[in-house]
UniProtKB/TrEMBL annotation:
Residues of the Prion-inhibition and propagation HeLo domain: 8-233
Organism, as annotated: Lachnellula cervina
InterPro entries per record: DUF7580, HeLo_dom, HeLo_sf, Kinase-like_dom_sf
Name of the protein: Uncharacterized protein
Origin: domain of life: Eukaryota
Residue ranges occupied by any DUF7580 domain in the UniProt entry: 430-652
Pfam family, one: DUF7580
Gene3D superfamilies on file: Prion-inhibition and propagation, HeLo domain, Transferase(Phosphotransferase) domain 1
Length: 657
């Protein structure tokens, strides 16, 4: 078939398919907006909305939804609408008929009725689908919102010229008696048809659909905040996952994969976010046993209280703990209750805001430490986080005489909190292997391949993306807090240690906290070396208002790390700066954004890497928001998350060398 004929066939099929697709959306809208849905069944409606978003993703990726606006460019770039023209039309017709038949059957059985109140021209069903979607905690992009409005208006205009058509085109359904079994069957069939729609596309388009769906899923998670809504979300995800078992990749790669794999990751994130929220409850637990079981909450209060470890059970390695009290981590032995000894590593958190003679940190510090230790200890933890497993914490400050060791001596005591971390069980990692930071590697290790550095950049950005997806800020992101555990390897020179740059661990959670409007910020003290990674607006010490730190500041810190990776030098060496000059540290952002500096990043790593780095450093409009926007609001958080994914994480994953 010649190209001109093929293009003509593709556009003709797309024109017909777009009409059927519009009918699919109309039918779905009537069902998902039906009133009087029982509270206990709202998770089914949520699942249906997510399947609708998946169908939208297919239409956008294939080029069907906007084929008139772009003159069929996407349609002609792919041969999908030529090779699979019959299958596409057949599947879309099946989806349209599925919802028509469901509505007819439910109406015939008097389970569904037309709402008695008249629907006027300002009906939310037609003119404000975004408001309806937001109330269900499902984000709706502007192109999809416009398409729904157009579809419902077209149905309304057609119905007005038909006898009895007013109730057909301008109506709102309501549930008189909800048929759960029939609704579940509808969901299963719709989900299967969606799977089939994706399967007929080529590798590239399937990859794009998976990306778009994952982005939508993160938006859904962003809008589900309290335990009740997170409970509904996990139940909605379980509908799909109970059918079959799918593995979850440590860090989802952008390759065609069944939708259920992404849903399983989303469920893990939702459960972790729920546990995070549960740690802030006071008094009797406001959730019931069923909610706790679905969300795998366990007993948050008990888990929080049990995170403290007796100082006498921790035996610091004198080689790594006594030489430099300013070191942020060291090796140690943890002695368990049963006498078993385990090699661990310690992350230190200093505290000096206490009353003279006090034997414990202030209550605020203790509360923060317990929450953080609980989060890092809680299982299951999403693998996408790439964070080490915390066994608990101990206070390394002054102790009572009864707490001293057998010889009555204090071992390297100073007012610091020690977080105790388990060594990873990755293949080839010895229990004796201490963590090595990216900062140390930048200072002493030969420059790795460009491909290794790009994988590392993408892995760290992806970790931050998922950390933010559960509403948690790192607030200490820098090369000192990106660690690796080298594996044993052999070559002609004998045994050597090899670093897998695609498997970093994000550590240094000493000042991490939830990103909530009511959460106070504990601002880190002035350490010039660390200030070089901090956004200028965050530099200071003591305690300040909650608004002083936000997600975009974490992203800025990532940008500084990306600059380091491009040159394989620490930031002070990249800029040839004296780390002790505080005023210089405050000007680092402006220096890094100079055109010559940004171009230097591109000359080392390529144009896409350069753009991603510039986006992180610039923030604001470059990330789709204003400097003055409140990043704790749903709308702003959603825009920031989407921009960070599209312009940074996705771009870094797409870099080819």
């Amino acid at each position: 078939m010649d190209p001109i004929s093929a293009a003509g066939i593709a556009l003709s099929v797309a024109s017909l398919a777009s009409q059927v697709f519009m009918g699919c959306i109309q039918g779905i809208q009537f069902i998902i907006t039906a009133k009087n849905l029982p509270e206990e069944s709202k998770y089914l409606n949520l699942r249906l909305r997510m399947e609708q978003q998946r169908l939208f993703a297919w239409s956008e990726t294939s080029g069907l939804m906007d084929h008139q606006e772009d003159n069929g460019r996407k349609i002609q770039e792919s041969n999908t609408f030529v090779i699979h023209r019959t299958t596409i039309l057949d599947l879309l017709v099946q989806i349209q008929c599925l919802f028509k038949e469901f509505e007819k059957a439910q109406t015939r059985n008097k389970h569904l009725q037309i709402a008695p109140e008249p629907v006027n021209s300002e009906d939310d069903l037609i003119y404000d689908p975004a408001k309806d979607s937001s109330s269900a905690h499902v984000p709706l992009s502007e192109p999809r919102r416009r398409f729904i409005i157009r579809a419902m208006k077209e149905l309304k205009s057609k119905a007005e010229g038909v006898a009895g058509g007013l109730s057909t085109g301008r109506r709102r359904l309501l549930w008189a008696a909800f048929d759960k079994a029939a609704f579940e069957n509808l969901l299963q069939r719709f989900s299967t048809l969606n799977d089939n729609m994706t399967d007929i596309l080529d590798f590239r388009l399937q990859t794009e659909i998976h990306r778009t769906t994952q982005d939508t899923n993160r938006g859904v998670l962003q809008l589900h905040k309290d335990l009740a809504s997170l409970h509904q979300l996990v139940k909605a995800l379980d509908i799909k996952m109970q059918a079959r078992s799918y593995p979850v990749h440590e860090i989802p790669q952008y390759a065609p994969t069944n939708d259920a794999a992404g849903l399983r990751l989303l469920a893990q994130l939702a459960k972790f976010k729920a546990f995070n929220e549960s740690l802030d409850t006071e008094g009797p637990a406001p959730w019931d046993e069923a909610t706790a079981m679905v969300l795998q909450l366990g007993q948050p209060d008990a888990e929080k209280a049990n995170t403290k470890i007796e100082r006498s059970r921790i035996h610091l390695n004198p080689k790594t703990s006594s030489t430099d009290l300013s070191a942020i981590r060291c090796e140690a032995i943890f002695e368990h209750d049963i006498g078993e000894k385990q090699r661990v590593w310690i992350e230190w958190k200093e505290y000096d805001y206490q009353k003279p003679g006090a034997l414990s940190p202030p209550a605020l510090i203790v509360d923060r430490v317990q929450k953080l230790a609980s989060l890092l200890h809680h299982s299951p933890k999403p693998e996408a986080f790439r964070v080490p497993h915390c066994l608990g914490y101990f206070d390394n400050g002054p102790r009572e005489a009864s707490e001293l060791d057998s010889e009555g001596e204090e071992e390297a005591l100073d007012p610091r909190i020690g977080f105790v971390f388990e060594k990873p069980k990755d293949e080839g990692v010895s229990p004796d292997t201490p963590p090595v930071s990216l900062f140390d590697l930048l200072s002493s290790s030969p420059k790795p391949r460009v491909t290794d550095r790009i994988r590392l950049a993408h892995a760290v950005a992806n970790c931050l993306l998922y950390l933010h997806s559960v509403n948690w800020l790192h607030k200490g992101l820098r090369s000192h807090n990106i660690v690796f555990f080298p594996t044993a390897s052999k070559d002609k020179r004998g045994g050597i240690k090899k670093v897998d740059y695609s498997k970093p661990y994000l550590s240094g959670f000493d000042f991490a906290r939830p990103a909530r409007a009511d959460e106070m910020t504990e601002i880190p003290g002035d350490v010039p070396e660390y200030n070089m990674y901090r956004h200028p607006s965050t530099q200071g010490q003591g305690f300040g208002p909650r608004e002083s730190f936000r997600k975009s500041f974490d992203i800025y810190s990532l940008g500084v790390v990306l600059v380091e990776l491009a040159s394989w030098q620490t930031i002070d060496r990249v800029l040839d700066l004296d780390v002790g000059r505080m005023r210089t540290a405050m000007k680092i952002r402006d220096t890094l954004l100079e055109e010559s500096r940004i171009q230097e990043v591109g000359s080392n790593m390529g144009e896409m890497y350069e753009r991603a780095t510039a986006k992180c450093l610039a923030g604001g409009n470059e990330l789709g928001i204003l400097e003055t926007d409140d990043e704790t609001s749903d709308a702003v958080a959603a825009k920031l998350s989407m921009a960070f994914y599209e312009d940074v994480v996705k771009k870094l994953g797409d870099v080819k060398v």
